Amino acid sequence: MNDPKDPKTWKALTGKVAVVMFKDGPGKKALLSRYDEDLGTAAFSWSEGPRQFTCTFPVESVAQVFADPM
Prior knowledge:
mainly beta; SH3 type barrels; 10% helix; 53% strand
C-alpha cells in the first residue's frame, strides 16, 4: 500500500489510473489527474458515457491509495 500522507505517493500516481479508498465513504477507480501539495488536495477524473467528471478532495480524507493493478 502507498502512504496517502506522503506527497511522493501522489506525485508518482498523478497521470495514472489509481484506486482511492476514502476514510468515510466508498472508493473510486479513476485517472488521478492532479495533485496540489500546497493545498493538500488531489483530483481524479472519469467518464460515464459522454459525460466527464472531476472530483477534488483533501488527501487527508484518504485511507488508502494505490495504482490500479489492471
